[in-house]
Amino acid sequence: MANQGTIAILAGTLIDGTGADPRRHTTIEVRDGEIVAIHDGHHVPAGATAIDASGLTVMPGLIDSHVHLAMRPKGLEDRLQTPYSLGVAETLVNARATLDAGVTTVRDAGGTPRGVKMALERGLFPGPRVRISVGALSQTGGHGDATTMSGVHLRADTADAPMSEHPWTVVDGVDEARRGVRQLIRAGADQIKLMTSGGVMSPGSDPGRTGFGRDEIAAIVNEARAAGRTTMSHAQASAGILNAVVSGVDSIEHGVYLTEEICHEMVARGTYLVPTLVAPLWVLRRAERDPGSVPAWAVAKGRTVVVAHKESFRMAVELGVTIAMGTDHGVGPHGTNAEELAVMVEGGLTPMQAIVASTSVAAKCCRVDHLVGTIAPGLRADIIAIDGDPLADITILQDHARLRVILQDGHAYKPLA
Ligand SMILES: [Zn+2]
């Protein structure tokens, strides 16, 4: 990144992302995109550009541990009429909408190809820092198998060919599972996503059914670890969650049907839960707002999971499972990510805990804590400032008009420098 000079952010209230009590009247000094110091009081070093946030709450940029930037709610006809390249263009628009919401880092759980990440990193388009999965490994007929009942496979961009940016991800057995991981890593995957249960938005699978045997999951985990990658598992069914946890998967996505036994196991192993509470809510909202846009079988499954999901989340909070914020957006509209914090607060977190889950803990879950997640010297300046006190009312984070400052990697995306 080019020399960006020195920026002094005059912070009214500072929430640093660690869970520590807020500090009043500090100056955050940023040099060439890196936070170099936090001073008491407001003063602007010589030659520095000041950002006056003295009436605002300053905090780390939000981190969404589960999005699909390449996905948006769309019906079958629309999906069939979208060329791959149009999908890439849409992905870039979705990335900008996400950054507009104060989300400065995302972990993409499947769909976003390497070229999009490279374009964002090179500053060709505005968007969050991205950690990509490229695709998600699934067993035949599982949540990630896009074969329809007519036999048509919906992902024409997926091929078992060296030139494809989207390797084939439907794998069965230990050997294919290993090959699947290796192909995803070759295609640029920062972490490996797998499906250890069925899901809501796939026609042939059921959220209550498992995906993959433990031997296959262990092979995926070991292969990912050998390459220094973490694993994230779409897991809704109890048995599918437990299979993933005991096989060493690093984060459980959705976790719809948790049990006390699973929660204790997750605490003992340090497994993250990325609840994505807003995802089934959006399936039902879409069905209500635009009948016909969501297939009846998905609506029925959405209704079934939403109650269990909330109960599971509350249990996880009470039993001390480590929670990282994620939305599954693409299922809901990109840019509405902060609603998840409000839903987590309804589900038992304090506003401060919801912020920590969306900053320092999410950074660890996404393996970017050496870069971002708190406001501390030595980290990159991914910083937002909001008009109001999110600890008094967590919903204000959803109001883009109140979001006055968005700094990503030290670059003032809002206000524009
Ligand atoms: Zn997802």
Please explain how this structure is put together.
With 417 residues, the protein is an alpha/beta fold. The chain folds into 2 domains: 6-61 and 372-414, Urease, subunit C, domain 1 (Roll); 62-365, Alpha-Beta Barrel (TIM Barrel), CATH 3.20.20. It is built from 12 helices and 16 strands. The protein has helices at residues 76-80, 84-100, 114-121, 173-186, 214-226, 238-246, 260-269, 278-289, 296-318, 339-346, 351-357, 360-365, and strands at 6-14, 23-31, 34-40, 49-60, 62-67, 103-108, 129-132, 136-137, 191-195, 230-235, 251-254, 272-274, 322-323, 383-386, 403-408, 411-414. Strands 3-2-1-4-14-15-16 form a 7-stranded mixed beta sheet, with no helix packed on it. A 6-stranded parallel beta sheet has the order 8-9-10-11-12-13. It has a 3-stranded parallel beta sheet with strand order 5-6-7. Helix 10 crosses helix 11 (351-357). The model has no long low-confidence stretch (mean pLDDT 93). Residues 66, 68, 109, 328 line the site of zinc ion. The site of zinc ion has 4 residues, from loops.
